[in-house]
Every structure is written in structure tokens, then in C-alpha cells.
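Researcher:
Attend to C-alpha cell order:
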Amino acid sequence: MIAITGATGQLGRLVIDCVLTKVPAEKVVAIVRSPAKAQDLAAKGVIVRQGDYNNPATLEKALAGVERLLLISSSEVGQRAPQHQAVIDAAKRNGVKFVAYTSLLHADRSPLGLAEEHRQTEAALAASGLAYALLRNGWYTENYAASIPSALKFNAFTGAAADGRIASAARQDYAAAAAAVITQAEPVNKIYELAGDSSYTLAEFAAEIARQSGKPIAWHPLAQQDFAALLIEAGLPQGLAEMLADSDAGAAQGGLYDESGTLSQLIGRATTPWQETIAAALKASQA
């Protein structure tokens, strides 16, 4: 029995789809906060169980009979460490044999502020005595592609990554990797540094948007604090704006770059070119 937490999230749904190509639906457990949002998964034959990171009692029930667990990191930055600890504790009590966790690229030495809670979770897994794998995911190309509509509107692409190279991959690539690890007899206590096969600077990313759209898109590098202020002015919550600006500043220090090729090796194909993700975002913006 294989379980996936956060199964109705953007990554979780893709992982479920990948797992279903390898494992019968009746062997797959989708752990979700709101089962009502997982009716489509239940229709596929997937076992849907309610499990809330903030409610350990629900996690206890959700993990009953589970042998392999994919712990997808919580989206609640600032609360992740205790939430993940609750899942790890429930997994241990239920006799789960293997846990794969979606961490952050080079979490042990990453300059990104996001890395701290991942480091805490990695330490909790190591201390748990459970067999585990760390899926240290790099950036999703979609994170930057989400800014394409505003870039087209204002003919400008902004960020605080300076000349840092970013080896991102599509969310689908990371989902395929997670599915591969959770369904196969992979070595335990292993760390996978996962990133795209190719990299870019944000100046190159802006230039590619301009090339594909035929519109003049200027690259406007900003200091971290100025970028955060711009995002807040655009309507983002302060915490999210500061996190994104911090991540860009980390990218400027090489925090989102890796050239190991581990991700493509794991999924058995090249990672999705970032140019293709831009093309898809442009097509979606015109729909």
C-alpha cells in the first residue's frame, strides 16, 4: 500500500497520475485535508482518506496499513516542521516501512530561507529510524512562468536573482521522480538532488518570453527588498512576497543550480525544457 500526502495539491495530483501507471488504484491511498476535493481520485479507484497535518489523530487513521509513504511538504511555510513531524510520528507508530520526502535542492547548504524547515524535517526523518529517501526538488519552471501574464502586460520581467543560473524543471518532471522512488525498491536513506538538465538566468528567461511572444519584454533586476516591495504592491501577502524575494536572492548565490543530471536519470528521459514551459504559459495566457 502506497500513500501520498497533499494528494489534491498541484504536485500531488501529478504524482497520483504517475503512480497509477505503475500500481493498481486499490493499492494507492490519497491523503487529503478535504476528501470532497478528491472525488475525481476516488472515481479512479484510489483510496481517499482524510488526513490533516495539524490533526495527528487523522494522520493515525490515514496511515493504517500503509507500507510506503510520500510526504509532500506542506504549503504552510512557518508551520512545516511540526506538521511534518506529526506525519513522521504517525508513520512510525503505524509501522510504515519507507518514507520519501519532497525537500529542497541542496537543502543542507542552501542559502534560501525556505531550506531551514526542510533541514529540520530531514533531521527528524534521520532521527526517526524509518527508512527514507530525500527528494531535494529544485525550482519548478512554473514558478517563474506564472509571472508571464504580468510581463506581457507591463513589457517587463522583474526579479532579484541577478545573474544566478537556475536549473529548474517542470512540475511534471518532479512528480515522475517522486512516483519512481515511491514505487520502486530504491536504496534507502538516499538523497536525490533534483534539477533540470539546462539552466538560465532571469535575463535569458525574459528574452525567451520576448522571442516567443514577439513583444518587447525588458529584464529589470531589483534588489531583494525592492522586489519584495514590488510584489506586495502588486497584491501578494507580505510573507509570500518576502519568501519569493528571498528565494530569488538565494538563486543569485547559486541556490537553485545543479548540473548532476540526477532528475533525468531517475525519470529515464530528459527534463522538460524551460522554453516549453514558457510556450505552454503563453498559450494559456491567450486562451
